[in-house]
Design a protein that fits this description.
The chain is an all-alpha fold and 95 residues long. It is 68% helix and 0% strand. It has one domain. The longest helix is centred in the middle third of the chain and has 55 residues. The chain is rod-shaped and about 135 Å long. The model has no long low-confidence stretch (mean pLDDT 92).
Length: 95
């Protein structure tokens, strides 16, 4: 009984190459996700600083508006421009 010896089949190179390619793609995707996460973190901190700055600006503008509308200031300006209370008949009330 002679058995024929088959030559050893060449090892498949496709599967290891695909595995290496999959690992490289997975590593690259992970890197890109982390990079985008870092960018968004910087953007978020920049927006937080902008919000704080705008809150401060809003507070300053409200303070300035209150100062400009103060009764003492308006009385001073009224006297400067010779303004007084309205005469009788100048005020009309609509209902």
């Amino acid at each position: 009984m002679n058995r024929r010896v088959r030559p050893a089949a060449p090892r498949a190179r496709l599967l290891p190459a695909l595995l290496v390619l999959a690992v490289v793609i997975l590593g690259f995707a992970t890197l890109m996700v982390r990079l985008e996460l870092m960018r968004e973190g910087y953007r978020l901190s920049e927006l937080s600083a902008d919000i704080a700055r705008l809150h401060e600006e809003n507070r300053a503008l409200r303070l300035r508006a209150a100062q400009l509308a103060s009764p003492e200031r308006l009385r001073t300006l009224a006297a400067k421009y010779h303004l007084g209370p309205p005469a009788a008949g100048q005020v009309i009330v609509l209902r």
